[in-house]
TrEMBL record:
Name of protein: TM2 domain-containing protein
PANTHER family associated with the record: BETA-AMYLOID BINDING PROTEIN-RELATED (PTHR21016), TM2 DOMAIN-CONTAINING PROTEIN DDB_G0277895-RELATED (PTHR21016:SF25)
Matches recorded under Pfam families: TM2
Subcellular location: Membrane
InterPro entries, A to Z: TM2, TM2D1-3-like
This protein's UniProt keywords: Membrane, Transmembrane, Transmembrane helix
Membrane association type: Multi-pass membrane protein
Organism: Lutibacter agarilyticus
Segments crossing the lipid bilayer: 74-95
KW RNA-binding (keyword) present: no
Superkingdom assignment: Bacteria
One CC-aspect GO term: membrane
All residue ranges annotated as the TM2 domain in the record: 46-93
Length: 112
């Protein structure tokens, strides 16, 4: 893959991943077969900031976890009303990282 294409992809999508993952992503994208490039460009990543806002507004209902695909944790938060409020508050600090990890997992499914 061309380094210029890869760098443009990374610049456009850097907010969706953890900063320590960027070098690994760049390396994998450069090594990737050109036939997968179209698939990589069509991936829809979740916005970490949106996850945080939803967590602040409706985190006790588990909507933030449902949104990123953690159905089991979403059901747990919904049944316990956000762990009686404690789990909801803890997720205010964890949800952005969890969203970025889910984005990385989605990208890795295509790359490997």
């Amino acid at each position: 893959m061309e380094a210029q294409k890869v760098d443009m992809f990374i610049m456009a999508n850097v907010k969706y991943f953890e900063s320590h993952q960027i070098a690994q992503i760049r390396e994998k994208l450069i090594q990737m077969d050109d036939s997968k490039w179209g698939l990589v460009q069509t991936l829809q990543f979740k916005e970490p900031t949106t996850s945080l806002i939803i967590s602040l507004l409706a985190g006790s209902l588990g909507i933030d976890r449902f949104m990123i695909g953690d159905t089991g944790l979403g059901i747990g938060k919904l049944i316990t009303c956000g762990g009686f409020g404690i789990w909801a508050i803890i997720d205010w600090f964890l949800i952005m990282g969890a969203t970025r990890e889910k984005n990385m997992a989605k990208l890795q499914q295509v790359l490997y």
